[in-house]
Design goal:
- The chain has three domains: 168 residues, Tetratricopeptide repeat domain (Serine Threonine Protein Phosphatase 5, Tetratricopeptide repeat), CATH 1.25.40; 104 residues, Immunoglobulin-like, CATH 2.60.40; 85 residues.
- The longest helix has 16 residues.
- It contains eleven helices and 18 strands.
- By secondary structure, the protein is an alpha+beta fold.
- The strands form five sheets. It has a five-stranded mixed sheet with strand order 3-10-4-7-6, with no helix packed on it. Strands 14-11-18-17 form a four-stranded antiparallel sheet, with helices on one face.
- Helix 5 packs antiparallel against helix 6, helix 7 packs antiparallel against helix 8 and helix 8 packs across helix 9.
- Strand 1 and strand 2 form a beta hairpin.
- The radius of gyration is 22 Å and the shape is globular.
Protein backbone atom coordinates (compact mmCIF):
# COMPACT_ATOMS: atom_id res chain seq x y z
CA UNK A 1 0.00 0.00 0.00
CA UNK A 2 1.67 3.17 -1.19
CA UNK A 3 1.33 6.93 -1.39
CA UNK A 4 3.18 7.66 -4.62
CA UNK A 5 4.36 11.31 -4.83
CA UNK A 6 7.34 13.48 -5.68
CA UNK A 7 8.03 15.62 -2.58
CA UNK A 8 9.21 19.23 -2.42
CA UNK A 9 10.17 20.79 0.95
CA UNK A 10 8.56 24.21 1.33
CA UNK A 11 8.67 26.20 4.62
CA UNK A 12 7.03 23.86 7.17
CA UNK A 13 5.20 21.67 4.62
CA UNK A 14 6.31 19.14 2.03
CA UNK A 15 4.67 19.28 -1.39
CA UNK A 16 4.69 17.17 -4.59
CA UNK A 17 6.20 18.81 -7.64
CA UNK A 18 4.28 19.44 -10.82
CA UNK A 19 3.42 16.44 -12.98
CA UNK A 20 5.34 15.80 -16.20
CA UNK A 21 3.70 16.35 -19.57
CA UNK A 22 0.14 15.04 -19.80
CA UNK A 23 -0.31 12.97 -22.95
CA UNK A 24 -3.20 11.12 -24.52
CA UNK A 25 -2.42 7.98 -26.51
CA UNK A 26 -4.46 6.46 -29.34
CA UNK A 27 -5.11 2.78 -28.55
CA UNK A 28 -7.37 1.46 -31.30
CA UNK A 29 -9.37 2.53 -34.35
CA UNK A 30 -11.99 0.16 -35.68
CA UNK A 31 -15.33 0.09 -37.53
CA UNK A 32 -18.44 0.29 -35.34
CA UNK A 33 -21.74 -1.48 -35.86
CA UNK A 34 -23.66 1.81 -36.08
CA UNK A 35 -25.25 2.94 -39.35
CA UNK A 36 -25.23 6.58 -40.42
CA UNK A 37 -28.69 7.78 -41.32
CA UNK A 38 -31.01 10.78 -41.09
CA UNK A 39 -29.59 13.74 -39.20
CA UNK A 40 -26.29 11.92 -38.67
CA UNK A 41 -25.46 12.19 -42.38
CA UNK A 42 -23.21 15.08 -43.42
CA UNK A 43 -21.75 15.91 -46.85
CA UNK A 44 -18.58 17.68 -47.90
CA UNK A 45 -18.43 20.49 -50.48
CA UNK A 46 -18.45 17.90 -53.31
CA UNK A 47 -21.54 16.14 -51.98
CA UNK A 48 -19.66 13.12 -50.65
CA UNK A 49 -21.11 11.80 -47.39
CA UNK A 50 -18.72 11.97 -44.48
CA UNK A 51 -17.43 9.28 -42.14
CA UNK A 52 -18.15 9.65 -38.43
CA UNK A 53 -15.61 8.95 -35.69
CA UNK A 54 -16.77 8.23 -32.14
CA UNK A 55 -13.89 9.42 -29.96
CA UNK A 56 -14.04 7.80 -26.51
CA UNK A 57 -13.07 10.88 -24.47
CA UNK A 58 -15.25 11.62 -21.39
CA UNK A 59 -13.87 15.14 -20.89
CA UNK A 60 -15.87 18.19 -22.03
CA UNK A 61 -14.19 21.06 -23.83
CA UNK A 62 -12.05 19.10 -26.31
CA UNK A 63 -11.49 20.53 -29.80
CA UNK A 64 -10.55 18.86 -33.10
CA UNK A 65 -8.58 19.95 -36.19
CA UNK A 66 -8.41 18.35 -39.63
CA UNK A 67 -10.72 17.75 -42.56
CA UNK A 68 -13.84 18.17 -40.42
CA UNK A 69 -17.38 18.39 -41.78
CA UNK A 70 -19.34 20.69 -39.48
CA UNK A 71 -18.86 20.91 -35.72
CA UNK A 72 -18.17 17.85 -33.52
CA UNK A 73 -20.78 16.93 -30.90
CA UNK A 74 -20.14 15.90 -27.28
CA UNK A 75 -22.38 13.12 -25.93
CA UNK A 76 -21.84 12.38 -22.20
CA UNK A 77 -18.54 10.52 -22.54
CA UNK A 78 -17.71 10.57 -26.24
CA UNK A 79 -17.34 12.97 -29.16
CA UNK A 80 -18.88 12.50 -32.60
CA UNK A 81 -16.55 13.89 -35.25
CA UNK A 82 -17.40 13.95 -38.97
CA UNK A 83 -14.46 13.73 -41.40
CA UNK A 84 -14.16 14.04 -45.17
CA UNK A 85 -14.20 10.69 -46.96
CA UNK A 86 -14.01 11.77 -50.62
CA UNK A 87 -10.94 12.10 -52.85
CA UNK A 88 -7.80 11.31 -50.92
CA UNK A 89 -9.91 11.08 -47.77
CA UNK A 90 -8.64 11.85 -44.29
CA UNK A 91 -5.61 10.02 -42.94
CA UNK A 92 -5.23 11.87 -39.64
CA UNK A 93 -6.70 14.56 -37.37
CA UNK A 94 -5.74 16.39 -34.17
CA UNK A 95 -7.32 16.23 -30.71
CA UNK A 96 -6.90 19.18 -28.33
CA UNK A 97 -8.01 17.97 -24.88
CA UNK A 98 -8.01 20.26 -21.81
CA UNK A 99 -4.99 19.47 -19.64
CA UNK A 100 -3.19 17.42 -22.31
CA UNK A 101 -0.78 17.92 -25.17
CA UNK A 102 -2.26 17.92 -28.67
CA UNK A 103 -2.57 14.39 -30.02
CA UNK A 104 -2.25 13.78 -33.76
CA UNK A 105 -3.95 10.52 -34.72
CA UNK A 106 -2.81 8.65 -37.84
CA UNK A 107 -5.32 5.88 -38.47
CA UNK A 108 -2.84 3.50 -40.10
CA UNK A 109 -0.52 3.64 -37.06
CA UNK A 110 -3.11 1.96 -34.80
CA UNK A 111 -5.14 -0.08 -37.30
CA UNK A 112 -5.22 -1.53 -40.79
CA UNK A 113 -7.37 1.43 -41.89
CA UNK A 114 -5.56 4.08 -43.92
CA UNK A 115 -8.53 6.42 -44.27
CA UNK A 116 -12.19 6.19 -43.15
CA UNK A 117 -14.84 5.30 -45.72
CA UNK A 118 -17.92 7.34 -46.59
CA UNK A 119 -20.97 6.72 -44.36
CA UNK A 120 -18.98 4.40 -42.09
CA UNK A 121 -18.89 4.86 -38.30
CA UNK A 122 -15.62 4.20 -36.45
CA UNK A 123 -14.63 4.03 -32.79
CA UNK A 124 -11.38 5.63 -31.62
CA UNK A 125 -10.27 4.55 -28.15
CA UNK A 126 -7.73 6.52 -26.13
CA UNK A 127 -5.51 5.92 -23.14
CA UNK A 128 -6.24 8.88 -20.84
CA UNK A 129 -3.83 9.46 -17.91
CA UNK A 130 -5.46 10.16 -14.54
CA UNK A 131 -3.64 13.52 -14.48
CA UNK A 132 -5.67 14.64 -17.50
CA UNK A 133 -8.92 13.79 -15.70
CA UNK A 134 -7.70 15.84 -12.75
CA UNK A 135 -6.70 18.85 -14.84
CA UNK A 136 -10.01 18.70 -16.69
CA UNK A 137 -11.82 18.80 -13.35
CA UNK A 138 -9.78 21.86 -12.35
CA UNK A 139 -10.74 23.49 -15.68
CA UNK A 140 -14.46 23.22 -14.89
CA UNK A 141 -16.38 26.30 -13.79
CA UNK A 142 -17.31 25.23 -10.28
CA UNK A 143 -20.01 22.68 -11.10
CA UNK A 144 -20.25 19.74 -8.76
CA UNK A 145 -19.73 16.57 -10.70
CA UNK A 146 -19.88 12.83 -10.43
CA UNK A 147 -17.90 10.05 -12.08
CA UNK A 148 -19.50 6.65 -12.55
CA UNK A 149 -17.26 3.80 -13.68
CA UNK A 150 -18.67 0.31 -14.19
CA UNK A 151 -16.48 -2.81 -14.17
CA UNK A 152 -18.11 -5.64 -16.10
CA UNK A 153 -17.28 -8.39 -18.57
CA UNK A 154 -19.66 -7.74 -21.46
CA UNK A 155 -18.55 -4.99 -23.83
CA UNK A 156 -20.76 -1.99 -24.48
CA UNK A 157 -22.61 -1.53 -21.18
CA UNK A 158 -24.84 1.55 -20.91
CA UNK A 159 -25.77 3.27 -17.67
CA UNK A 160 -28.73 5.50 -16.82
CA UNK A 161 -29.52 7.46 -13.67
CA UNK A 162 -33.26 7.71 -12.96
CA UNK A 163 -34.85 10.05 -10.41
CA UNK A 164 -38.52 10.93 -9.99
CA UNK A 165 -39.30 8.82 -13.03
CA UNK A 166 -36.99 10.80 -15.33
CA UNK A 167 -33.60 9.98 -16.83
CA UNK A 168 -31.19 12.50 -15.33
CA UNK A 169 -28.05 11.22 -17.09
CA UNK A 170 -27.07 8.44 -19.47
CA UNK A 171 -24.16 7.16 -21.52
CA UNK A 172 -21.45 4.53 -21.67
CA UNK A 173 -19.02 4.06 -18.82
CA UNK A 174 -16.99 5.76 -17.56
CA UNK A 175 -19.66 8.46 -17.51
CA UNK A 176 -18.70 11.99 -16.45
CA UNK A 177 -21.60 14.08 -15.17
CA UNK A 178 -22.09 17.62 -13.86
CA UNK A 179 -24.77 19.34 -11.78
CA UNK A 180 -25.96 16.13 -10.13
CA UNK A 181 -28.57 16.83 -7.46
CA UNK A 182 -28.05 15.19 -4.09
CA UNK A 183 -30.44 12.32 -3.47
CA UNK A 184 -31.35 8.72 -4.32
CA UNK A 185 -31.20 7.42 -7.90
CA UNK A 186 -32.04 4.21 -9.66
CA UNK A 187 -28.93 3.11 -11.60
CA UNK A 188 -29.83 1.04 -14.66
CA UNK A 189 -27.03 -0.91 -16.35
CA UNK A 190 -27.63 -2.61 -19.69
CA UNK A 191 -25.47 -4.67 -22.05
CA UNK A 192 -26.30 -6.59 -25.24
CA UNK A 193 -27.37 -10.15 -24.50
CA UNK A 194 -27.97 -9.59 -20.78
CA UNK A 195 -30.97 -8.75 -18.66
CA UNK A 196 -30.94 -5.25 -17.18
CA UNK A 197 -29.28 -4.74 -13.80
CA UNK A 198 -31.02 -2.29 -11.46
CA UNK A 199 -29.16 -0.75 -8.53
CA UNK A 200 -29.99 2.02 -6.07
CA UNK A 201 -27.55 4.77 -5.17
CA UNK A 202 -27.69 7.74 -2.83
CA UNK A 203 -25.51 10.50 -4.24
CA UNK A 204 -23.98 12.91 -1.77
CA UNK A 205 -21.09 15.18 -2.76
CA UNK A 206 -17.82 14.07 -1.19
CA UNK A 207 -19.01 10.59 -0.19
CA UNK A 208 -18.06 7.73 -2.55
CA UNK A 209 -20.71 5.04 -2.92
CA UNK A 210 -19.90 1.44 -3.92
CA UNK A 211 -22.53 -0.69 -5.67
CA UNK A 212 -22.57 -4.33 -6.78
CA UNK A 213 -25.01 -6.41 -8.78
CA UNK A 214 -25.16 -8.89 -11.66
CA UNK A 215 -25.98 -8.81 -15.35
CA UNK A 216 -27.95 -11.99 -15.97
CA UNK A 217 -27.41 -13.84 -19.26
CA UNK A 218 -28.28 -17.23 -20.68
CA UNK A 219 -24.86 -18.74 -20.05
CA UNK A 220 -23.10 -16.50 -17.55
CA UNK A 221 -24.10 -13.86 -15.02
CA UNK A 222 -21.07 -11.59 -14.57
CA UNK A 223 -20.84 -9.34 -11.55
CA UNK A 224 -21.08 -5.62 -12.11
CA UNK A 225 -19.57 -3.09 -9.73
CA UNK A 226 -20.07 0.67 -9.76
CA UNK A 227 -18.79 3.54 -7.68
CA UNK A 228 -20.05 7.11 -7.50
CA UNK A 229 -17.65 9.78 -6.27
CA UNK A 230 -17.25 13.53 -6.71
CA UNK A 231 -14.17 15.00 -8.43
CA UNK A 232 -12.33 18.13 -7.33
CA UNK A 233 -14.40 21.14 -6.45
CA UNK A 234 -13.84 24.79 -5.62
CA UNK A 235 -14.38 28.15 -7.26
CA UNK A 236 -12.64 29.16 -10.49
CA UNK A 237 -10.70 31.73 -8.47
CA UNK A 238 -9.44 29.06 -6.06
CA UNK A 239 -8.35 26.85 -8.90
CA UNK A 240 -6.43 29.68 -10.55
CA UNK A 241 -4.77 30.63 -7.25
CA UNK A 242 -3.83 26.99 -6.64
CA UNK A 243 -2.26 26.62 -10.09
CA UNK A 244 -0.34 29.88 -9.65
CA UNK A 245 0.94 28.63 -6.31
CA UNK A 246 2.09 25.33 -7.81
CA UNK A 247 3.96 27.15 -10.59
CA UNK A 248 5.75 29.27 -8.01
CA UNK A 249 6.77 26.17 -6.06
CA UNK A 250 8.90 25.07 -9.01
CA UNK A 251 10.93 28.28 -9.11
CA UNK A 252 14.22 28.99 -7.35
CA UNK A 253 13.07 32.36 -6.04
CA UNK A 254 12.84 32.42 -2.20
CA UNK A 255 10.37 35.31 -2.25
CA UNK A 256 8.13 33.44 -4.70
CA UNK A 257 8.32 30.30 -2.58
CA UNK A 258 7.40 32.26 0.54
CA UNK A 259 4.44 33.75 -1.31
CA UNK A 260 3.43 30.25 -2.40
CA UNK A 261 3.54 29.10 1.21
CA UNK A 262 1.30 31.97 2.33
CA UNK A 263 -1.17 31.15 -0.44
CA UNK A 264 -1.09 27.49 0.62
CA UNK A 265 -2.13 28.49 4.13
CA UNK A 266 -5.00 30.62 2.82
CA UNK A 267 -6.29 27.88 0.51
CA UNK A 268 -6.14 25.34 3.32
CA UNK A 269 -8.14 27.65 5.59
CA UNK A 270 -10.70 27.95 2.78
CA UNK A 271 -10.97 24.11 2.74
CA UNK A 272 -9.94 23.84 -0.91
CA UNK A 273 -9.54 20.03 -1.41
CA UNK A 274 -6.18 19.86 -3.29
CA UNK A 275 -4.63 22.27 -0.77
CA UNK A 276 -6.00 20.20 2.12
CA UNK A 277 -4.34 17.10 0.67
CA UNK A 278 -0.98 18.85 0.36
CA UNK A 279 -1.25 20.15 3.91
CA UNK A 280 -2.05 16.61 5.03
CA UNK A 281 1.08 15.39 3.28
CA UNK A 282 3.15 17.91 5.21
CA UNK A 283 1.64 16.71 8.50
CA UNK A 284 2.18 13.08 7.49
CA UNK A 285 5.90 13.55 6.85
CA UNK A 286 6.15 15.43 10.14
CA UNK A 287 4.59 12.27 11.72
CA UNK A 288 1.60 14.22 13.00
CA UNK A 289 -0.71 11.44 11.81
CA UNK A 290 -3.86 12.64 13.58
CA UNK A 291 -3.61 16.01 11.82
CA UNK A 292 -2.76 14.32 8.53
CA UNK A 293 -5.84 12.09 8.73
CA UNK A 294 -8.13 15.04 9.46
CA UNK A 295 -6.77 16.92 6.44
CA UNK A 296 -6.85 13.86 4.19
CA UNK A 297 -10.45 13.16 5.25
CA UNK A 298 -11.51 16.70 4.37
CA UNK A 299 -9.73 16.50 1.01
CA UNK A 300 -11.21 13.09 0.20
CA UNK A 301 -14.74 14.16 1.12
CA UNK A 302 -14.18 17.21 -1.09
CA UNK A 303 -13.59 14.84 -4.00
CA UNK A 304 -9.77 15.02 -4.21
CA UNK A 305 -8.44 11.63 -5.53
CA UNK A 306 -4.99 12.08 -3.96
CA UNK A 307 -6.72 12.70 -0.62
CA UNK A 308 -8.64 9.43 -1.07
CA UNK A 309 -5.41 7.52 -1.74
CA UNK A 310 -3.72 9.07 1.27
CA UNK A 311 -6.70 8.43 3.57
CA UNK A 312 -6.84 4.82 2.38
CA UNK A 313 -3.12 4.51 3.10
CA UNK A 314 -3.68 5.67 6.69
CA UNK A 315 -6.58 3.24 7.20
CA UNK A 316 -4.48 0.41 5.75
CA UNK A 317 -1.54 0.98 8.08
CA UNK A 318 -3.42 2.38 11.07
CA UNK A 319 -1.70 5.77 10.98
CA UNK A 320 -3.62 8.25 13.13
CA UNK A 321 -6.70 6.02 13.42
CA UNK A 322 -7.80 2.42 13.90
CA UNK A 323 -6.54 0.09 11.19
CA UNK A 324 -9.43 -0.89 8.91
CA UNK A 325 -8.73 -2.71 5.62
CA UNK A 326 -12.32 -2.36 4.40
CA UNK A 327 -12.28 1.42 4.82
CA UNK A 328 -8.88 1.48 3.14
CA UNK A 329 -10.25 -0.43 0.15
CA UNK A 330 -13.28 1.86 -0.10
CA UNK A 331 -11.19 5.00 -0.41
CA UNK A 332 -8.54 3.47 -2.65
CA UNK A 333 -11.25 2.15 -4.97
CA UNK A 334 -12.88 5.59 -5.11
CA UNK A 335 -9.55 7.11 -6.16
CA UNK A 336 -8.92 4.32 -8.68
CA UNK A 337 -12.26 4.79 -10.37
CA UNK A 338 -11.57 8.52 -10.59
CA UNK A 339 -8.50 7.54 -12.65
CA UNK A 340 -5.78 7.68 -9.96
CA UNK A 341 -3.04 5.21 -10.92
CA UNK A 342 -1.71 4.74 -7.37
CA UNK A 343 -5.23 3.87 -6.19
CA UNK A 344 -5.42 1.32 -9.00
CA UNK A 345 -2.18 -0.32 -7.85
CA UNK A 346 -3.30 -0.33 -4.21
CA UNK A 347 -6.61 -2.08 -4.85
CA UNK A 348 -4.85 -4.55 -7.16
CA UNK A 349 -2.56 -5.41 -4.26
CA UNK A 350 -5.57 -5.74 -1.91
CA UNK A 351 -7.41 -8.00 -4.36
CA UNK A 352 -4.31 -10.17 -4.55
CA UNK A 353 -3.77 -10.39 -0.79
CA UNK A 354 -7.44 -10.45 0.23
CA UNK A 355 -7.12 -7.48 2.58
CA UNK A 356 -10.33 -5.47 2.78
CA UNK A 357 -11.92 -7.46 -0.04
CA UNK A 358 -12.29 -11.11 -1.08
CA UNK A 359 -9.08 -12.32 -2.73
CA UNK A 360 -9.47 -12.46 -6.51
CA UNK A 361 -6.30 -12.69 -8.59
CA UNK A 362 -8.07 -12.06 -11.91
CA UNK A 363 -9.31 -8.71 -10.60
CA UNK A 364 -5.91 -7.95 -9.13
CA UNK A 365 -4.37 -8.54 -12.54
CA UNK A 366 -7.00 -6.31 -14.19
CA UNK A 367 -6.21 -3.42 -11.86
CA UNK A 368 -2.43 -3.89 -12.19
CA UNK A 369 -2.89 -3.59 -15.96
CA UNK A 370 -5.12 -0.53 -15.58
CA UNK A 371 -2.50 1.09 -13.33
CA UNK A 372 0.18 0.46 -15.96
CA UNK A 373 -2.08 1.82 -18.70
CA UNK A 374 -2.63 4.94 -16.57
CA UNK A 375 1.12 5.55 -16.57
CA UNK A 376 2.31 3.90 -13.34
CA UNK A 377 5.80 2.39 -13.65
CA UNK A 378 5.24 -0.99 -12.02
CA UNK A 379 8.96 -1.75 -12.13
CA UNK A 380 9.40 0.54 -9.13
CA UNK A 381 6.58 -1.11 -7.14
CA UNK A 382 6.71 -4.40 -5.21
CA UNK A 383 4.97 -7.25 -7.04
CA UNK A 384 4.55 -10.91 -6.16
CA UNK A 385 6.22 -13.44 -8.45
CA UNK A 386 2.78 -14.56 -9.65
CA UNK A 387 1.72 -11.03 -10.53
CA UNK A 388 5.05 -10.26 -12.20
CA UNK A 389 4.92 -13.41 -14.35
CA UNK A 390 1.29 -12.76 -15.33
CA UNK A 391 1.96 -9.13 -16.25
CA UNK A 392 4.96 -10.14 -18.39
CA UNK A 393 2.59 -12.32 -20.44
CA UNK A 394 0.78 -9.09 -21.32
CA UNK A 395 4.00 -7.62 -22.65
CA UNK A 396 4.99 -5.48 -19.66
CA UNK A 397 8.75 -5.19 -19.09
CA UNK A 398 9.21 -5.88 -15.37
Amino acid sequence: MRISKVILSLIFLIFPALCPAHRLRAVSFEPAADILHGKLLRKDANGVEAAMIKVMLPIPGAEFDGNLIGDPEFHANEYWVWLEAGGDGTRMFDIHCPGAETLRVYFDEISDIVKPASRQVYTLRLDIPESVYGLAALRDTGLRGTVIDITYRPVGADVRLIRDGQTRASGKTPLMLSDIIEGTYAVIIEAPGYHTALLDATVKPGHPVSLTGTLTGDDVSPEVAAIIATPRQGTPQQRERYQTMIRRMNQNDPDSLLSAGDEMTRLTEERYPPALELAGLGAYYSQDYAKAVALYQAAAEGGEPEGMVSLGHCFYHGYGLRQDYREAFKWEEAAARLGNATGMYNIAEMYETGKGVRADFSRALEWYLRAAAAGLDLKSYPLSDKARDSLRRYGLAL
